[in-house]
Amino acid sequence: MKKLVLASKIITLVISVQVHGFHIDRGIVAVGVNNNNETFITWRLLETDPPDIGFNIYRSTDGGTPVKLNSSVLSVLTGGTNYTDKTADPTRVNTYFVKPVIDGIEQDTDVMPYPEPESSVSPFNSYTVSYTANSPYYTVPIRSGGEIHFAWIGDFDGNGTIDFVIDRVAANPQTIEVYRDDGTFMWEVNFGPNSADKDNLYPSSGTIDVGHWDGVTAGDVNGDGKAEVIIKFTNGARFGDGGTFSDSNNDKQWIGVLEGTTGRLLASCQIPPDFIAVGAITNSLGVWLGIGNAGIYLHGKNRNQDGSFNQLDCVFTWDGSSSLSVKWKKTGGGAIAHQMRICDVNADGTDDLCHIGYVRNGNDGSITGTT
Fold it and tell me: What is the total count of domains within the chain?
């Protein structure tokens, strides 16, 4: 069994986290440092936390009574989302948890992020992690398999912890696998025979993750507190619930929204076929948020035989059920980046699309800025 290494370098930045609307917990992690003679503990600051929030950190040894470790409240202004424990015995099981302090009062339960979780889910009352002598990193065990290129995160089961999607790019056909935060396998997608050609410039229509183009992303698009997985796919793809997509045209490409818990196809829409005669579109995907709706942003291209590129930008809106449709599409644009950013740059409530040389207005795709 392989292990996915999640963190091996200690970073002491204070980062506020809320991932596309779904609720997440503190994500407390403890790792050994200085030859395991000390333990470094770190946790998340949530977007909904008040600006003056502080924390107290507790340790329970071998299941004993918890002991507060900090002598004064850990302020977020002084690195209050991490702590180094220099007194723990690394040969014993040490369990750590944190409690927020608001207006000088320690809270019995944590601050509730928005949106509130379903009534059956209450992951906010305790945050614990057990640590025994080990190397200074946090791992998640996963199934044995081939090369992994990319990973995506999302809370797919709605329990407040971040789960994982990984790809198997060298496999033939290619696959993605979804795991819970503890490494429990959930489901996989087989991208079918159209993912066999992995040429970086001229891949086949179902291929994902060539070069910097992913073709997969994750996020809570419909705001129900559970993330969805969004993929590009073609004829022959088999989804997480075993359903197989059939289309007589192997060149046509589709965007699909998959249920996070099962991998079932919830909604799909064909990628605009403007350049289908040239070949497959390679693309990056991201979650797009607008006023009263949400969806997926696609930035893609394919390459002509003379070396020039065709470029496609479009937004798909999703009704949260079975309808996924193109809101707008644009071709051309400007300098092609190896990454993109999705953010509301003009503060109108709708995400805009930012590239290395231009910005598209998220409402209609018009270019609102260039560099």
Answer: 2
pLDDT tens readout for residues 289-322: 998 889 999 999 999 999 899 999 999 999 999 9
Instruction: Kindly report, residue by residue over 124-157, the tens digit of the pLDDT.
Output: 333 445 544 445 566 778 999 889 999 999 999 9
Starting from the edge strand earliest in sequence, which strands make up the sheet with 82-85, in order?
Answer: 29-33, 38-42, 82-85
Contact 117, 123 (CB under 8 A): yes
Assess if residue 311 is contained within a domain: yes
> Of all residues in the chain, what percent carry a pLDDT higher than 90?
54
173, 186: one domain:
yes
Q: Does 39 share its domain with 114? A: yes
The pLDDT of residue 339: 80
Three-state DSSP class for residue 194: helix
pTM here?
0.82
Position 27 scores a pLDDT of 81
Cis peptide bond N-terminal to 173, omega within 30: yes
**Can you give the residue range of the structural domain that contains 300?**
141-370
- Could you tell me whether strands 228-233 and 324-331 are parallel, antiparallel, or unpaired per DSSP bridges? unpaired
What is the rounded distance in angstroms from the CA atom of residue 357 to the CA atom of residue 352? Answer: 14
The rounded radius of gyration (Å) of the Cα atoms in the chain is 22
Residue 4: closest CA among 181, 131, 172: 181
Same domain, 129 and 166: no
- Can you list the alpha helix ranges (DSSP code H) found in the chain? none
Cβ-Cβ contacts under 8 Å for 139 (sequence gap 6 or more) = 3, 4, 5, 6
188 and 90 in a single domain? The answer is: no
Among residues 82, 106, 138, the one where a domain terminates is: 138
* Spans of the chain, pLDDT less than 70: 1-23, 79, 109-138, 336-337, 371
Report helix, strand or coil for 370: strand
Identify the burial level of 330 via C-beta atoms within 10 angstroms of its C-beta, where 0-12 means exposed, 13-18 middle and 19 or more buried: middle
Looking from the CA of 204 toward its CB, the CA atoms found within 13 Å total 19
What is the identity of the amino acid at 3?
Answer: K
What pLDDT is attached to residue 336? Answer: 67
Instruction: Find the angle CA(206)-CA(224)-CA(113) to the nearest 5 degrees.
Output: 120
112, 145: one domain: no
